[in-house]
Amino acid sequence: MFQKKPNIYGSIFRFDGQATVFSPFKGPCYRCLFPEPPPPGMVPSCAEGGVLGVLPGIVGTIQATEAIKLITGQGEPLIGRLLLFNALRMEFREVKIQRSPDCPVCGDHPTITELIDYEQFCGIGRGEEGQGEATGYDIDPAEAKEILARDKHAVLLDVREPHEYDIVRIEGAKLIPLPELHLRTNELDTANTIIVHCHHGPRSQQAVKVLEHFGFRKLKHLRGGIDAWAEEVDPSLPRY
Question: Which domains occur in the chain, in start order?
Fold first, then answer.
């Protein structure tokens, strides 16, 4: 938008894809379609969401087609039209989208005039494979085991997805997937120590931020996640 260049947008999630063209001064921009970023912790990682393997190729081909159309000036680009694809039903649908006069980027009185750090703004982790940045709540697996042994009220909170929980779990862990956490905090008690873990660490770091937002203070973060637990505490657990 700020460089006045068309953005050929494509997005994929599980079995669904979508595509459109955001063309400055000719139609709506991305913020017209998505006015507000998702709350911290609600953006799923690849491990949480996943995608049907062929879907990137389908949506990518649509994007390439739109690029050729824009370059050659042929056809009718997807400006102001959001193309939706559902692979399970093998169905394409189209939704009209319009420029919003109140849009903070392209509206009549824009308030956003430069790029911001959207990863920081949305609370997106820096990657599932790494363990992310250290937090003040970090503990290693041995410390977590000790806390669970001495504090019968301590809660081990697993924020992975159900299919991961079925592969391997720490005995006694309570499962609340990260995307559901902000809706299920009533299942937890602020008086209890809560040790949060995921597979390697990034999702549980996001979960700690979500719980902080809801007033939880007795938080611990299992550094390295269940993978570190399996390596350092219980080698009998399968690793994936």
Answer: 7-122 (3.40.50.720), 138-232 (3.40.250.10)
